[in-house]
From TrEMBL:
Organism: Prauserella alba
Record protein name field: Uncharacterized protein
């Protein structure tokens, strides 16, 4: 398994090497990458061996979590 980004005059691409010799490739004329701080992201994650599914979900960030973007890169 691995990740291989590429950048050329034609645009940006990335290939994810998956299991069993399969891969997934995405390509486009550009890409945007963001680094950010998510409230509560520095807190230790829940104990996955003892917590219930609901406790684990409530203790982790989700797509709805607010984020403060601290760096952005545009290719």
């Amino acid at each position: 398994m691995g990740w291989c980004p590429g950048n050329s005059g034609a645009g940006f691409s990335c290939t994810a090497e998956l299991t069993s010799g399969t891969s997934l490739q995405a390509a486009g004329s550009g890409a945007e990458f963001y680094v950010g701080d998510i409230a509560g992201g520095d807190v230790s994650p829940p104990d996955f061996t003892a917590a219930t599914d609901a406790e684990i979900r409530s203790g982790l960030p989700s797509w709805g979590s607010e984020i403060e973007v601290v760096h952005a890169s545009f290719v």
